[in-house]
Amino acid sequence: MATNAVSGGSPESPERENGPETTAAADDRRTHLHEGPVEEERLADGPPEPLTAPPQPEYPVREDAPASNGDTPPAIGASSEDDAAPPVDVDTPQTAAVAGRSQAASEVGSRPDAEHRPGDARAAAAEDRPGTPVPTRARPVAARGDGELASATPARDAAPRTQPDKAPSAATSRPAVDHATVTLNTRTLATGRAATPADRTADASRRPVPSWARPEGDDQPIRALVVPKALDTPTTNFAHPATAPAAAPRPFEPVFAGSPQAADSAEAPLSQLTDAPGPAETSRRSAGRRVKVWTPVLLLLAGAVAGSQLLRPLPDPRIIAADRTHTVEGRLAVPWPEEGQGAVRIPGSGTISTFGIQRPVPIASVAKIMTAYVVLKDHPLSKGEAGPTVTVDARAVAEGRSENESRIAELTEGSTYSQLDMLKMLMIPSGNNTARLLARWSTGSGSEAPFVERMNAAARELGMKDTTYTDPSGLDAGTVSTAADQLKLAEAVMKDDVFRSVVALPDAEIENLSQRLINNNTLLSAPELSIRGIKTGSSTPAGGALVWAGYKTVGNETPLILGALLEQRADGPDLNAARSLALVLANSKKVIESVRGALTSATVVRKGDTVGHVDDGLGGRTPLVAGADLKVAATPGQTLRLTLATSGGTGVKTPVPRMAAAGAEVGVLTAGEGAGARSVTVVAAEELTEPSIGTRLTRVG
């Protein structure tokens, strides 16, 4: 049988437009909201008896309850202007406190979809106190004893029903309640007394059977269910329509697990979950929170940085000299000639003076110094040893007949001479044919070219950058060099005992030669000069040239003095440069006399003078002082090179110590350069220690 949805009217009343929802719609909404079956109730036989509501206390009205916008569906038992049905009883929080509350509570518990929730117990306890509104969460709609629907809709969301053409009054209209209430099925008797248990029993007999309990085909009329709206649905305050009421404190509303309110509360800030508001955010509070958060992080980072700094390897300490050079007091004016180039040097002390432009020029027989150096290097001799024999070939005999060069004319083919005798023929009378014979013999070839290559290689080893050799005798004009380069060679070759003994001879006698060998270096015969070599040279391209070596005792030492003078040319005709040779000897004597007279033992540093420091690589410095006086043979105005380095006491360099006691030997200070340089030990002026922990922690590099 078709049913009409009614609200507070008779079963025959047609469905009102914009009225309560149909049973199907209510079923859908209740299933969505309460996850339980929808109860369908049949109307009781006959219209309900009119009830008279007892006086109700007024509840405070919330300021935040907005006026009805007309879209709110009327609550059960309410009517609108469009509804012409007779008035019915109105459920109020006060009527929920009478005898019908126990019956409604039992009905809620007996429903198939009912669940035991903590809020139900509190609601039941509140119902035992008449006139007390019961706060509770939204519950499923329960059947009322008089055939109407009991609603769990909060009272604040229910709009009071009014009669048509009748203004609302205080007796029929009441303010919205600020909390949810349970509307129980109660009836006020016409006499004004409260319903008794007997009355409730009679009502129960007239209660319609739910749809799920009715047999199929039952066509009794049913009432459409109106699902209560959410608690935040705005209501219309008919009691005070003119002015907005003052805001009232919101009573506590319990929130149960699994409810939408509980889900919202889980994400709410602390200030919304507690009665007291959260503390106001201030700059001081923010700063304190940042300090609490960042302090452990900063401490951890500081510990990591400190650990890495302490574990980093320390840099190697270095010794740094206070000065790199030292200039001897005074000034020496060497009497150099007006033309040519020259240089004077003391091995170990350094260069005393230079003269002219050091550019490569022909050097004539001075080239034989390199020839002797290479022969002795390839075929070394010990002092007093004659060495292997050299056989004269036909080429050497033929070259001995040349008229325009120095030569040994008495050589015969097949004759033999010792290596020492051949060196004397080379260096004393300066035989060109002897130089070429030694070159072929030294390399074992029939050409001098391989030997010339050996001469140039030796020059490069000695650092003679401006020297080029094209023949072993120097007769070729392509053999060129400088005065400074020739002193490098002279210093190296004068270390050989056999060479020194040969070049120091003013003359010599050779077996199988009828003529005595005479040295062209006449300075060897001047005892006041103490000249001990080395080699003269003369030719038209080269003019006169001389490389000399002398000695002078100064203090406790007798240093070697080396000098070279090139490009000395005499005026007028000069056959075979004989006059130029005499000129170079005369000019060299003046230079030698001047240098010997000025040579002295110069004090470079005195004991206790600060000569440098030890740098630990992290800013720490320990001063170093000389352990004794350092004296060097030098001339006034001469610049000496200073070198500060470590030494193990035997000339072997060792690492700089990290720790040492005050006065401990740390290194050596050397004045000059080369094998003849003078040195003195240096000691720590104070205790030498490793960098401190603070220094290691604050290191940057």
List its salient traits.
single chain; 701 residues; alpha+beta; 7-stranded antiparallel beta sheet; 5-stranded antiparallel beta sheet; 24 strands; disordered N terminus
Largest sheet: 7 strands, antiparallel
Number of strands: 24
- The share of residues in helices is 25-40%
Low-confidence stretches: 1-54, 57-191, 221-227, 229-242
Distance, first to last CA: 99 Å
Radius of gyration: 65 Å
Strand order of the largest sheet: 5-19-20-24-23-22-6
Derived from helix and strand composition plus strand pairing, the structural class reads alpha+beta
* Separate helix tally: 16
Globular, elongated, flat, extended or rod-shaped: what is the shape?
A: elongated
Instruction: Please indicate the percent range of residues in DSSP E strands (runs of 2 or more).
Output: 15-25%
What is the averaged pLDDT score?
73
